[in-house]
Amino acid sequence: MKKYFGTDGIRRIANTELTPELVYKVAKAGAYALSKHTDKTPTILIGRDTRLSGTLIESAMTAGFLSYGANVKQLGVIPTPGVAYLTKRLKADASVVISASHNTYDFNGVKYFSNKGMKIPDEIEEEIEEVMESGKLDELTALSDKIGIAEDRRDLIEEYVFFFRKIFEENLENFDKENFVVGLDVANGATYKVAEQVFEKLGIKIQIINNTPNGTNINDNCGSTHLESLKELVIKQHLNLGIAYDGDGDRCLAIDENGNEVDGDMLLAIFASYLKEKGKLKKDTVVATVMSNLGLKKFAQNNSINFEATKVGDRYVLEKMLKEGYNLGGEQSGHIILLDYNPTGDGILTSLMLIQIMLEKNLKLSELCKVIKKYPQVLLNVKVKNDKKPNYQTDEEIQKEIKKLQEEFQDNGRVLVRASGTEPIIRVMLEGENQKDIEEKAQKLANLIKIKLN
Q1: Inter-residue contact 69 to 146 (CB < 8 Å)
Q2: Is 309 part of any domain?
Q3: Among the options 101, 114, 273, 351, which is catalytic?
Q4: Quick one: which of 195, 214, 207, 303 has its CA closest to 255?
Q5: What is the pLDDT of residue 38?
Q6: Known catalytic residue: 101?
Q7: Who wins on pLDDT, 218 or 312?
Q8: Residue 312, SS3?
Q9: In 422-452, which positions are buried (b, 16+ CB within 10 angstroms) versus exposed (e)?
Q10: Which domain holds residue 61?
């Protein structure tokens, strides 16, 4: 079991748990593990979101890389998928995103990407941890003229803007956008500048909110985890739709013209239908996780689309897509991977694809959503003692209750219990045909877990 890395990199309270000393070690060990097969001086990109602690972590990360002998390009504030794209575009040896995604500002994190612009697999994370714990770090110190150099390359965000223009500009020019207006919530996060630039270049009118980051307001009652202000904007201003990103810009959720939420499962269904119709859905398959709504699986069955489920985490969705040759996958949280364009979830890309479909088909978002019927779902987060997180799998009473519920649901519902990879939380998810029924059953199971694991 890994000591530092969770399901999405390392994520902790900045400066007390995610200390500069720890970050320095992670950088040195990471530079070694990710570039040991290169015969040239490695180049590593660093991007970050708008958190107050971002420059602190960036400085420690940079010092670790330079000390190893790697050169660093500091990209400044840029969405996670922007870093992934530029890693491939510039043929860098690796990259790092400093972000805690949708978490509050006091958290921060470190996510590594390989030279292919993809999150590194578990094995490399384990290797980085082994190096950190082995006492080898002093041996990885560059001397004299081998010390690395850092340079400010915030100008490279223009390359990321151009990436979207290449994909969408020609198509979007053909549609009437005169009365089409999008509400955009950028979560006071990494997309706060670039999203506005992209939409302006593509001629899409927007009303933007939560685009004044101050270091502590990232995800604060805004973005994809808090959709209330976006719903209000869409309804009051009679907008065509609303788009919300998370703090690091790899997720996208939407609001239809009536103020209804459109989650990642619904987006996957819309995209799968569109791509299949165009003959562009590879192997007629959509990949999601075990957390996806049962309605997505039923949608796939009803539309002759194969449905593949992985364990939770966009990296596992991507692994499945790469292994089997699929090009569409994602998570209910709005982390959508359109592999023909970028090997990671990209909120801006997802939103532009959705807008293109709406304009091309001349349909409202609520009409597009009719392709999928979602099952009522309840998700409860149960706080438990961190060292007791794994015990839900072996506790007889908890397992007996889970089995009993699964037998009651049969094919018209399901129970899923799993430990969070980043927090001291057990997630309890129930789906079924009756909202009140599953709420009561989920609460009963959550209460049992809380008693047993605290």
Answers
A1: yes
A2: yes
A3: 101
A4: 207
A5: 74
A6: yes
A7: 218
A8: coil
A9: bbebbbbbbbbeeeebbeebbeebbebbeeb
A10: 10-152
